[in-house]
Write a structure and sequence with these properties.
This protein has 190 residues and is mostly beta strands. The chain has a single domain, classed as Sandwich (Jelly Rolls), CATH 2.60.120.10. The chain is 8% helix and 39% strand. It has 2 helices and 13 strands. Strands 1-2-3-11-6-9 form a 6-stranded antiparallel β-sheet, with no helix packed on it. Strands 8-7-10 form a 3-stranded antiparallel β-sheet, with no helix packed on it. The longest helix is centred in the N-terminal third of the chain and has 10 residues. Bound molecules: D-sorbitol-6-phosphate and zinc ion. The site of D-sorbitol-6-phosphate has 14 residues, from strand 3, strand 10 and strand 11.
Amino acid sequence: MDIPFTFTVPLPTAVPTRADKHLERRLSALKGQFLDTERYQAMLAEEDRLVYEVYEIHRPEVPGELLLGISVVHPGQVGQEFFMTKGHFHTVLDTAEIYYVLKGEGFMVMETPEGACSVEALTPGKVLYVPPRWGHRSVCTARQDDLVTLFIYPANAGHDYGTIEQQGFRKLVIEGAAGIEVIDNPRWKQ
Ligand code: S6P
Ligand code: ZN
């Protein structure tokens, strides 16, 4: 039988004291996601930089259970676009997710298959509820600091990366002339 458990996420390192799996995603894992493909190739040729990490707690992937962990998106840019997660829909679309921002600055880019979209600023202490059906991607916009979030979602949700891999999200977060801007993704076709 399971027994209740705790873990802590000491700041500023934000490495949780418990993690059953530590996942590292590098530039090469984000092929096709950044708009500036020339800059992407040039950066990749130089170094396959670490873009984000995920610390996961294992639970059985069945209804009733929750999956949780810590996501750490590192600062960086490919051209004008900030470092970000791959982003996904949940395979079981009707499953929600909660994010709690522990550290850093950034955005959550979200959209539904029905065409709604939303981009929420993430700052320490903020709680974000991502409703069922909303695909989501975290973007780190700080120059030096990681964007660190705690995430919690139904254990049977699963991940659909394929839809986003095809043409990305409808919105992009970039460093524009006047600062951070949210723009339409020119690659996105109706
Ligand atoms: C899972 C949850 C997070 C992400 C993590 C990395 O549903 O949304 O754990 O997995 O932020 O993002 P991605 O898009 O590579 O899974
Ligand atoms: Zn998710």
